[in-house]
Design goal:
By secondary structure, the chain is an alpha/beta fold. It has 19 helices and 18 strands. The strands form 3 sheets. The protein has a 6-stranded parallel beta sheet with strand order 2-1-3-4-6-5, with helices on both faces.
Length: 540
């Protein structure tokens, strides 16, 4: 005869089995926002010794924090919230993670079916809450007596795989619980099941397609353009080797991972924003082909240059997404960058005419002669080898693109470039610090104000947040809105926030600088001291 278990113990045992399944699949981190209905899962996570748990009271900040962990670790992170409006606060991070290919496992606790649609407290329709932004959505039933743990183990493995392949992203799991929510009986520690061996295919370009493409570009002037992509050592080396064989310049953005490191950087172009504004040069150096890796370029000059290449426009994209906002695509390789480069190098490629790449190199030299004693140069010089550097959106990322230069020091650049929003940037940076052990972040004043709650996650971390205070939305100074009579009120929006008070409220060290020399000293002191710091850089 089947023995009935009290509801609280049943809920907890069910949750234990599910969490054990996620751990077996490879999950190492969970971000929990406190709540009542989510208690069984929160308790199961907190009592799972193989799961590192982080508690963040603000669900919006929690989701971006988890996004940062997943960006840095490249594995799915569990995110838990209670019922009602709590999971709705995940939406901005959900959109960012979906568009940037970051794996997250979202678990929203819910009321049971009998409390839906009848005015019960803290109850909303959570099924399908995130629409097309998730890779999969699962509406589970309430825990049932006599359940088979193997079901939940396999369910967790399935959800984990959906979040990682073929296109990393989010999986939403809605889990209703009946009360009571606390176990009445002692429960044994959950046994971690054996991992399911999942073998994904290796995407290799078809030899005939590679041969045809090699014939089309061999001996002709072209460029390699690299947007944001995972900073894999083998990709950088392979792309550099292909550029050498083709005598092609590499126009690489900071988030490509190619600007810094010990790979061959001799064909890199990192100051293209300076010389692509020269219309005469651009018109005289129109490539006959472009080979793109990663996302589409972020700055207007490079976007326009790449979008004007009409003859051969090739993209290497292993994920099932379409990256062609200029509508110029002629070739698409569904394969890993290093594999495409290796396959092309096996063909009889002829280099472009000798003067082609040299012209780009000369422009780089001229642009490099312009002295840059700005805050970005100071930060890149002061930070240590292998430091993660998070860059905010809007004006900050564009300034980094123009001014970062290149070097042998390994610097891991991160940014939220999926949807390019200025929300959640502090929280994401703190998630990156949770993995790497430290982080340096460069943000605008409005970006910082958007995520002040994220400063709570900086406590106890080696994190230096640099806020460039240029009195509001500086990016709009470069846009047509600046001519409007309502410009200051509706777009520039200067704020009166005290960043010193914000830092002190959340227990961060604070420094202020109004010159580059002062900034260097303040930054150097913060890095040497360790712990969390916020530095306000006053810009005219």
């Amino acid at each position: 005869m089947e023995t009935m278990t009290d509801t609280g113990t049943l809920n907890f045992s069910w949750s234990q089995a599910m969490v054990a399944g996620f751990v077996a699949a490879g999950t190492t981190d969970a971000v929990i926002s406190p709540g009542s209905r989510s208690t069984p899962l929160a308790l199961a996570m907190l009592r799972q010794p193989r799961l590192r748990c982080h508690v963040a009271v603000d669900e919006r900040s929690a989701a971006f924090f988890a996004l940062g962990i997943a960006k840095a670790s490249r594995r799915p992170v569990l995110v838990l919230a209670t019922s009602g409006t709590a999971p709705a606060n995940w939406l901005p991070a959900v959109i960012e993670a979906s568009q940037s290919g970051v794996p997250l496992l979202l678990i929203s606790a819910d009321r049971p079916p009998e409390l839906q649609g009848c005015g019960a407290n803290q109850t909303v329709d959570q099924i399908g809450l995130f629409g097309s932004h998730v890779r999969a959505s699962h509406a589970l039933g309430t825990p049932d007596n006599g359940f088979d743990p193997a079901y939940l183990h396999r369910f967790a493995a399935r959800a984990y795989e959906q979040a990682t392949w073929p296109h990393p992203g989010l999986v939403h799991i809605n889990q209703p619980f009946r009360e009571s929510l606390l176990p009445l009986a002692d429960t044994a520690e959950a046994e971690i099941p054996d991992s399911i061996r999942v073998a994904h295919p290796t995407l290799q370009p078809a030899p005939e397609d590679i041969r045809d493409f090699a014939i089309r570009i061999s001996g002709r002037p072209g460029v390699i353009v690299c947007g944001e992509m995972p900073a894999l050592r083998e990709d950088g080396k392979a792309i550099a080797a292909l550029a050498k064989r083709l005598n092609a310049p590499i126009l690489a953005e900071p988030l490509s991972g190619l600007r810094y490191g010990d790979h061959d950087r001799s064909r890199l172009c990192v100051r293209y924003n300076h010389w692509l504004s020269n219309q005469a040069f651009s018109e005289q150096h129109q490539p006959e082909w472009v080979l793109r890796f990663g996302t589409f370029p972020l700055t207007r000059n490079l976007q326009n240059y790449v979008g004007g290449i009409r003859q051969i426009h090739a993209v290497v994209e292993p994920w099932p997404r379409w990256s062609d906002p200029a509508h110029r695509l002629t070739h698409l390789f569904r394969a890993e960058p290093a594999d495409v480069c290796t396959a092309l190098l096996a063909e009889s490629l002829v280099a472009a005419p000798g003067g082609w790449r040299q012209d780009f190199a000369e422009q780089e030299v001229i642009a490099a002669e312009r002295p840059d004693a700005g805050h970005i140069a100071a930060m890149l010089e002061e930070i240590q080898h292998a430091t993660p550097f998070f860059i905010g959106n809007s004006l900050a990322i564009r300034q980094l693109d123009s001014l970062s230069g290149s070097g042998e020091k390994a610097i891991h650049f991160y940014g939220n470039r999926g949807a390019n929003g200025i929300d959640g940037n502090i929280s994401t940076a703190m998630g990156i610090a949770a993995v790497h052990g430290n982080v340096v972040a460069l943000l605008g004043d409005l970006t910082t104000q958007h995520d002040l709650g994220g400063l709570a996650l900086a406590q106890g971390r080696n994190a230096v947040i640099v806020v460039v205070n240029n009195a509001g939305g500086g990016i709009f100074d470069h846009l047509p809105q600046r001519e409007l009579p309502e410009f200051v009120q509706g777009w520039r929006t200067p704020q009166q926030i005290s960043f010193e008070h914000a830092a002190l409220t959340f227990g961060l060290g604070f420094g202020r600088a109004d010159s580059i020399d002062d900034f260097r000293k303040t930054l150097r002191a913060a890095l040497a001291a360790g712990g969390p710091h916020l530095i306000e850089l006053q810009m005219p």
